Amino acid sequence: MILQNKVALVTGGTSGIGRATAIAYAQQQAKVVVVGRRMDGGEETVRLIKEAGGEAIFVQSDVTKEADVKAMVDKAVGVFGRLDIAFNNAGTVAENPSLIEQTEAEYDRMMNVNVKGVWLSMKHEIAQMLKQGSGSIVNTTSGVGVVGSPSQSLYTASKHAVVGLTKAAALQYAKAGIRINAVAPAAIETDMFEAATGGQDEVKAYITGLHPIGRIGTPLEVANAVLFLSSDLVSFVIGETLMVDGGYVAQ
After folding, report:
1. Whole-angstrom distance, CA of residue 17 vs CA of residue 183
2. Residue ranges per domain, the chain?
3. Are strands 241-244 and 85-88 parallel, antiparallel or unpaired?
4. Cα-only R_g, the chain
């Protein structure tokens, strides 16, 4: 049990990768704080954890609002006494594929969730971890956080920004005992993937073909990578982006 007695917080924990990771944390005997905007999804994640014998609470929060982010960290500490691990996973993806037709509102939505949300989360998580003298943070970027995607200019930009935030924060707080890394999935079997493809089989087949492994990934495969980065098994690893992409970026 590599996370026994640790307290772990997961943003975007209402479904997909976030839910799978919250459950994986609990299976390693961490106490889990599930964070998200959808109460029904968050409570379902907590129910699944508790049914398996784990301990978890749900905090409804919008990571684009600083008051909400501060409150989620305060709640974690108020209930469990500390914060050892944070997985900043909340994100959004849908956008107009034509850059010249994108709107200012689309830009603001993408950057607010994918970049501001990670920055605000780290800001308040790190403040708590500094009081403790230790902590581990994992941010969700993407395969297109290190390469380009011609039909996802805003998403690509936002995920590149997460890689930069991860590196800069990791360097700033390394000597304070706080490890910060990122995980970069490619296409994963989630509701977000379904929405992005419009449920169209031909689109799914095309995207699948971009992955040398011959399939898209599962939420559990990403969760296992996050679990690894969160743990003391990689105590000498900081500022890294771990590709979980079926070879997508290696081509």
Report:
1. 11
2. 7-244
3. unpaired
4. 17
pLDDT tens column, 197-206: 888 999 999 9
Residue 100 sits at φ, ψ, to 5 deg, of -75, -10
CA 168 to centroid of chain Cα atoms: 17
Q: How crowded is residue 119: how many other Cβ atoms within 10 Å of its Cβ? A: 17
- Rounded Cα distance between 183 and 169, Å, is 15
Residue 156 one-letter amino acid: T
Q: Which fold has domain 7-244?
A: Rossmann fold (3.40.50)
Q: Is 155 a catalytic residue?
A: yes
Instruction: Give the chain's length.
Output: 251
DSSP lists the bridge partners of residue 34 as 10, 58
Residue 192 has a pLDDT of: 85
**Is the Cα dihedral 109, 230, 31, 219 positive or negative?**
positive
Q: Quick one: DSSP state of residue 113?
A: I
Q: What is the pTM of this model?
A: 0.96
Q: Supply the pLDDT for residue 194.
A: 85
The catalytically annotated residue of 25, 107, 155, 173 is 155
